[in-house]
Amino acid sequence: MSAHPTTPAEFPLAPRRARHHPNIDGRLPGLLLALAVACVATTLAALLPIVGAPVLGIVLGVIIASTRKPSTLFTPGIAFASKRVLQLAVVLLGTQLSLAEIAQTGVQSLPVLLGTLAVCLLLAAWLGRLLGIPSDLRTLIGVGTGICGASAIAAVTPVIAASELDVAFAISTIFLFNVTAVLLFPIVGHQLGLSQHAFGVFAGTAVNDMSSVVAASTAYGAAASHTAVVVKLTRTLMIIPICLGLSATVRRREKISAEPPCSGAPVHVRVLRLVPGFLLGFLALAAANSAGLIPSADHHGLSDATTLLITVALSAVGLSIDTAGLRRTGLRPIVLGAVLWVAVALTSLALQHVTAGV
User: Does any domain span residue 7?
Assistant: First the structure.
């Protein structure tokens, strides 16, 4: 008998221990929880079709998180579902549209989109200063409300070197009005008699985050959802000139004050990194659909799969609510967020009326 320990090479036929990918294993509990909530929401949606599964998913998630916050065991999967699963759903929405429809909707929405963005950013700067809110925090709340919620906040944070506390306050504020928009906007749309297209433009320009845009517009109708996603993706691209402008402003201030940047190095904005990868996927599938590569018989199944993915993602968004963070935010940032949210919504409706979009 050999005195050396037995090595695997001596037993080539011995069964190998199964390998588990640590990321997949870590995400599984949270993904299963989000899927379970989504299944309950889908079942309830059969009884409440006017509300829809995605809205019910986010509401159920918020109720669960407010009652008993999921443990850290579920955190990786919930975070994955709320972001990556939602992005996959947006990509699949491309199978329902053509490039011609996307271009037409994007161009038609530009006056409303640019108008709401200008009102939001100018009001954030003026009212934020009036309320005594620090510059970085009012900038984060302004771009989060005017462009694309948490994604815009994440893109702008390194440009202005915002603190983690300001980021947490801004995201908490944005999330509060995201959930409110999901519940309130479809009711407003029905009361105003908005068409599917008009509500899609309304949701795409007046709701902060992509997840909430999808939830509110899906509850209103499939056509509204298609329009809202295109408008929202067009609006998301506005983060590129905003980040470039903020970067130039930061460098100019540093040159005037002759002080080095907070990070110790100049802030450089990489434009290509500001373009979401899922936007390219969305356009690629829309191009495939335009070319007739996606059979029309598959559209219904793909639509159902997209709705399920959206419901799973929004259930995860609800489960991730941080009630303690909302309490720590304080009143002034919430007041700023509320005023901006209302101003953007009213501006969107007013500009649609002026441009005969309603």
Answer: no
- For residue range 10-42, what is the model confidence (pLDDT) as tens digits? 334 444 444 445 566 689 999 999 999 999 999
Domain-embedded: residue 8: no
Q: Is residue 148 part of a domain?
A: yes
This prediction has a pTM of: 0.71
**CA 214/CA 227 separation, integer angstroms:** 10
Whether residue 10 is contained in a domain is answered as: no
Gap between the Cα atoms of 109 and 211, Å rounded: 20
Rounded distance between C-alpha atoms, residue 46 and residue 42, angstroms: 7
Residue 176: other Cβ atoms inside 10 A: 20
Nearest to 215 by CA among 223, 206, 205, 225: 225
Spatial separation of the C-alpha atoms in residues 113 and 187, rounded to whole Å = 22
Q: Rounded distance, CA 120 to CA 160, Å?
A: 19
CA pair distance 86, 308, nearest whole angstrom? 10
What does each C-alpha distance from 76 to 11, 30, 33, 97, 256 come to in angstroms?
38, 6, 11, 32, 43
3-class state of residue 4 by DSSP: coil
Q: What share of the chain is helix, strand, coil (3-state, %, to 5)?
A: 80, 0, 20
| Contact present, 117 and 345 (Cβ < 8 Å) | no
What domain count does the chain have? 1
Range of the domain at 135: 27-354
Helix-helix angle 149-160:135-143, to 10 degrees: 150
Q: How far is C-alpha 322 from the geometric centre of its chain's CA atoms?
A: 16
User: What is the reported pLDDT for 258?
Assistant: 52
How far apart are the C-alpha atoms of 352 and 202, rounded to whole Å? 8
Cα distances (Å, whole numbers) of residue 98 to 50, 230, 286, 354: 27, 11, 5, 28
For 37-52, what is each residue's pLDDT tens digit? 999 999 998 887 666 7
| Model pLDDT, residue 68 | 87
DSSP 8-state symbol, 209 = S
Q: How far is Cα 174 from Cα 341, in angstroms, rounded to an integer? A: 9
Q: Tokens 């040159």 belong to which residue?
A: 255
